[in-house]
Amino acid sequence: MLQETKNKLRIISPGEFEAHNHWYPKALNATIHPMINFFLNLDQERIITRYCHMHPIVDGDKLREILNYPIKYFQWAGADLLNVTSAGGKRQMVVIENNSCPSGQKSMPLIDDHLEQGSYRLLIERTFVPLIKRSRLKIKGGIAVLYDKNFMEASGYAEVIADLMKEKVYFIYFENQAEDPDVRFTDGIMEVRDHSGTWVPIRAAFRYLTQKPWNRLPLNSKTKILNPIIACLAGGRNKMVAAKAYDIFNSELEESGLKINTPETIWDVRKNEIPLWVRKMGGHAVIKVPYSNAGQGVYTIVTERELDEFMKLDFDYDLFIVQSLIGNSNWSSITSLGKLYHVGTIPNQKNQTFVADIRMMVSATKNGIKPLCTYARKAEKPLLNDLESGMDSWSMLGTNLSFKDSKGNWKSDTNRLMLMDRRDFNKLGIGLDDLIEAYIQTVLSTVAIDKMAKTLVNKQGKFRMRLFKSLNNDQNLLNEIM
After folding, report:
1. How far apart (Å, rounded) are the C-alpha atoms in residues 389 and 204?
2. CB of 24 within 8 A of CB of 107?
3. What is the pLDDT of residue 8?
4. What is the spatial distance between Cα 370 and Cα 350, in angstroms, rounded to a whole number?
5. For the segment 114-124, what is each residue's pLDDT rounded down to a tens digit?
6. pLDDT tens digits, one per residue of 374-404
7. Helix-helix angle 60-67:44-54, to 10 degrees
8. Whole-structure pTM value
9. Are strands 340-342 and 319-324 parallel, antiparallel or unpaired?
10. Nearest to 446 by CA among 309, 246, 305
11. d(Cα 311, Cα 30) in Å, to the nearest integer?
12. What span, in angstroms and rounded, lies between the C-alpha atoms of 157 and 474?
């Protein structure tokens, strides 16, 4: 069995893939729900026809254009969405964030029991291999997979790449602030240090770097990387720029009837301004450190005590995002669009409803942007009708499964994982139209970020730092960019 050993380079050879190493046990033995299978096998025209039937104001041609949009940078994305409703009963999927290098494969039941590499193979086959083949620069070198967390999925990708490309793959733990990493760049070409100490050029790299990846990978790389760093800075790991990308794209979409649904968002907020915005939203808000992920740097505020505790904390960055909080029908943020609140899970036998979000992973293919896999996560504690004094709102509203143990290692609370299988899916209370809506919202947000990435690169392929600074003038972040 493949074991995680940090600070070691591994050579992965073809034929090493073992399914039990790359799925949670509960997912490996699960049977996919028929509706999820049906959704993932719907062709694009049927999705467009159904969506326009349910949303008559939507321009079908514009939707078709977006689903076939030629992604340049943000080729692999995973959006987190909330199933919400209004006081009038209008339901919608709301994008909380869209992530480059998203997790999800280890939580996805197989679509076909005979294809044991599942959607690991789909992503590599549809998106990564074509990226290598159309690369203009002919670097003679190997293929690498870099990761800083999620060993289970990163190693799965490495083994599938070895199988598909029929060559060895360099699999490297590349931690944030590593003292002597086995990765370097020479004239824009990635090199990895093999077991003999020789630096080997890399022609293409698949990366699962999530913690400040811009401090290890350069903006301009001759080695093809999925996803490149520009995708992170343009919104894939930068909630500040993502919010602006969504706003700009929504203006472009206005006449088509399409829109990225997001909470009301205030950006470029300095710490001392936060209490003013929280008060404006009725005392309920979400505060985000724009460059964190895995549930880190997100603070739900529903009481004065929680706001006071937040204000006592110290942060690496100067600017924050304040968003409207989606809670219960009795306590949600006051916004210009009214209150939104969680639909939540179907009540359990104790009549408790839990907040749940949905992760929808997509990738760019020659036939448009396609869904890959999906799963859901629920909060630790049930959603209450009335707020209690001294309560911790994050345990009731936070859904991310990642946490760090006492030794600083990333772990996952799989007890709160909800699979798209015959058992868990029914508890989510969503249907086929909700899945289609989640997919389209994911695609819209992905395209918005890719458009922003294209804007941030000039005709010579260089990063437009001055423009980026005008969008995200946070000096501590600028200092981190490699």
Report:
1. 54
2. yes
3. 77
4. 38
5. 899 999 999 99
6. 999 999 999 998 887 667 899 999 888 776 6
7. 140
8. 0.94
9. unpaired
10. 246
11. 44
12. 34
Neighbours of 268 (CB within 10 A): 17
Residues 76-87 pLDDT 10s: 999 999 999 988
Structure tokens at 40: 């993932």
How confident is the model at residue 338, as a pLDDT? 77
- Token output for 117: 């590499």
Average pLDDT, the chain: 92
Structure tokens at 213: 């990846």
Look at the block and give the residue holding tokens 């009301």: 264
| CA 163/CA 476 separation, integer angstroms | 41
Task: Write 420-425 long-range contacts (CB < 8 A, 24+).
Answer: 420/32, 420/33, 420/36, 420/108, 420/109, 420/374, 420/375, 420/376, 421/27, 421/30, 421/31, 421/32, 421/33, 421/109, 422/30, 422/31, 422/32, 422/33, 422/34, 423/30, 424/376, 425/33, 425/35, 425/36
Pairing of strands 285-288, 298-301: antiparallel
- Predicted confidence at residue 137, as pLDDT, reads 61
| Dist. CA 280–CA 273, nearest whole Å | 11
Please state, in angstroms and rounded to a whole number, the distance separating the CA atoms of residues 296 and 307: 17
Residue 316: both structure tokens together: 């690496």
